[in-house]
Amino acid sequence: MSPQHFEDRASHLPAKDRPLYFIINPAASNGKARTAWDELQQYLHQQDIPYWFAISEDEDNLTALAKKAAETPGAVVAGVGGDGTMSLIATAIYGTDAVLGIIPAGTGNDFARTFSIPANPVQACRSLLDGNIVPLDLGRLNGKLFYNVVGAGLDAEVVADANRLFKKVSGSLGYMLALVKQLVFYRPHRFHITVDGKHTELDAWLVSVANAQYYGSGMRVAPEADPQDGYADVVIVGKLHRLQFMRLFPLVYQGKHVKHPAVQVLRGKQIAVKCAKPLHVHADGELIGKTPLKVEMCHHAISIKVPAAENEKISPAV
């Protein structure tokens, strides 16, 4: 994947004429990304749009490819895959003038929801070509960058079970089986939470630190989160009886759970979470270790391409 002749002209081109790189993860959503790429490639050829592409399912290679593409001034580096692929690209282009592009082709596609990026690959590509560039916050979790949601508690234990017990079950079914298991057996834990110096101690089902609104294939865990404001929304689901929690749980898909008195939403730039018993921690849908966790928000860390209509709601990149 070679930058070729773009170095001297990219910074002076209109956004839609920036050098365009696609990085495809064929393993995303059991081959959905490969199908999306075949459709997208046909469209690109029909429109005579120049581009570079690479296909890999290896995380280290995906990261290396994104960093290589970001060496081209002004490059748009678009992932074709799920949230895990986008997270790898977003963190890889940090510190460059490259722009993140999203062609959602995974199981959840949660970050695409936040910016109303179409699920159809051709429509998503049109938004990529004709959309606008806006700034995007990232978070730093225990020194590692993330772009969507991190947390500990029930949700992280679901990810752990899905990876460990149900990894041979395809797509969202494995996640749902893990969720059912944890809803039956999980018990709230004692959390010590510090947000910008203010300390809270309580028993909770989970603590989510959200840069954006959605995770877990459509759960609107932080309905007011804004990935441009420099803050994380810290969503704490406090101690409830199991049946109360099960009644509350479906409300997360509409973001209505935050109205329940057992749910707190704090906002801050620096967050620390500890537990008496070390718990799994997830970041952008992947396990990354155990508590304690420390998050620091990085304001306007990278840029992202969004649909033109969506740009009316959010601040343009400077």
From TrEMBL:
PROSITE patterns: DAGK. Residues 15-145 form the DAGKc domain. The keyword rRNA-binding does not apply. InterPro entries: ATP-NAD_kinase_N (IPR017438), Diacylglycerol/lipid_kinase (IPR005218), Diacylglycerol_kinase_cat_dom (IPR001206), Lipid_Phosphate_FormReg (IPR050187), NAD/diacylglycerol_kinase_sf (IPR016064), YegS/DAGK_C (IPR045540). One of its GO terms (biological process) is phospholipid biosynthetic process. GO terms for molecular function: ATP binding; kinase activity; metal ion binding. One of its GO terms (cellular component) is plasma membrane. The keyword Lipid metabolism applies. Its cofactor is Mg(2+). Pfam families: DAGK_cat, YegS_C. Belongs to the diacylglycerol/lipid kinase family. This is Diacylglycerol kinase catalytic region. It comes from Dethiobacter alkaliphilus AHT 1.
